[in-house]
Design a protein that fits this description.
The chain is an alpha/beta fold. The chain has 2 domains: 210 residues, Rossmann fold; 58 residues, Alpha-Beta Plaits (2-Layer Sandwich). 36% of the residues lie in helices and 28% in strands. It has a 6-stranded mixed beta sheet with strand order 5-6-7-3-8-9, with helices on both faces. Strands 11-12-10-13 form a 4-stranded antiparallel beta sheet, with helices on one face. Helix 3 packs across helix 4 and helix 4 crosses helix 5. The radius of gyration is 24 Å and the shape is elongated. Bound molecules: adenosine-5'-triphosphate. The site of adenosine-5'-triphosphate has 13 residues, from strand 2 and helix 1.
């Protein structure tokens, strides 16, 4: 379990992480989602003791990273896949790591097999493609057989097969009861991988909930209703505080009321409805809605950029 309490990091005039508190639980994949510059990497570095919090604290299984006697066996992390600038082979790189942490050689062979690096294990790691580098970084994270895994953008640079591989691997590891904390800015990927999401924007936690709740609670959930009495139904719904759009003559899109409430209201007032469809927002829509005020770098449309 990872527990952050009022975690804050200030660099000069820049507040990268502004008092975040959250708990990452064992046995599930927790996604850490946020736009560029939101503070994901800074938070992860503080978990790993690579950055010192300006205030607040973060612990892994009750202790700060540095307090663990054998940290590599407790927490495995992939923070910067490009960090391996080595003329050593992947095998020797992992072997050196294992030797300095009292990890048996057999485990090196195991993680090479798990990450699909067998064919390139004797090649210089410095010459690896981004995807191979990611696999090596994940192999290094798994080396100590840790209970907790922290992976910063693990699918970055992977081909579609690699993306599926990471997804299956993290789900397998969480299934074994491990704590898996995974950052990404790819919502579609998170939707298929994570059970729980922590969303941050401008250094603050915007949402912390099961994926399902984030989708349905985004304020984007609407209900499509078709009726031959749109005006009557519209008035009835408006009187209940719903906001209504009319995209087609006999179609209403209703925000703010559940489908069941709309059906009951129609029945009570003898209004015929011939379609009632809850429109669930995609994770992408929910995410855009959540972070719309918290994006540090807004992109301009082509037209705006030309002005
Ligand atoms: N060493 C540093 N010195 C000054 N500012 C920093 C430093 N590291 C990060 N920042 C700033 O803190 C903010 C958060 O950065 P961070 O890298 O944690 O975000 P992120 O969510 O990981 O973003 P990305 O998805 O782009 O990697 C950014 O505005 C960044 O420019």
């Amino acid at each position: 379990m990872i527990e952050a309490n009022g975690l804050t990091k200030i660099y000069g005039a820049k507040t990268a992480v502004a008092g975040v508190s959250f708990t990452v639980r064992a046995g599930q994949v927790t996604g850490f989602l946020g736009p560029n510059g939101a503070g994901k990497s800074t938070t992860m570095r503080m978990i790993m003791g690579l950055d010192r919090p300006t205030s607040g604290s973060v612990t892994v299984n009750g202790l700060r990273y540095a307090q663990h006697k054998a940290p590599l066996r407790e927490v495995g992390a992939l923070l910067d896949a490009k960090a391996v600038h080595t003329s050593r082979s992947a095998y020797n790189h992992l072997l050196a790591m294992a030797a300095t942490h009292g990890i048996p050689k057999a485990r090196v062979h195991e993680v090479i097999g798990m990450t699909g690096l067998d064919a390139v294990a004797r090649k210089k790691a410095g010459g690896f493609s981004l995807g191979m580098g990611q696999r090596l970084g994940i192999a290094a994270a798994l080396l100590g057989d840790p209970q907790t895994l922290i992976l910063d953008e693990p699918v970055n640079g992977l081909d579609p097969e690699g993306v599926v591989w990471v997804r299956n691997l993290v789900r397998y590891l969480a299934g074994q009861g491990r704590t898996v904390f995974l950052s990404s800015h790819l919502m579609s990927e998170m939707a298929q991988t994570a059970d729980h999401l922590i969303v941050i924007g401008r250094g603050r936690v915007i949402a912390d909930a099961p994926i399902r709740d984030i989708i349905t609670g985004s304020g984007q959930s609407r209900v499509r209703v078709r009726t031959d009495q749109p005006d009557t139904l519209r008035q009835l719904l408006a009187a209940r505080g719903a906001s209504i759009e009319v995209p087609e003559p006999e179609m209403l899109e209703v925000t703010g009321l559940q489908a069941k409430t709309i059906a009951a209201l129609a029945l009570e007032n003898q209004v015929l409805i011939y379609e009632l469809t809850p429109l669930v927002a995609s994770l992408e829509e929910a995410y855009m809605e959540l972070t719309k005020d918290d994006v540090e770098y807004h992109s301009l449309s082509a037209a705006e950029a030309g002005n």
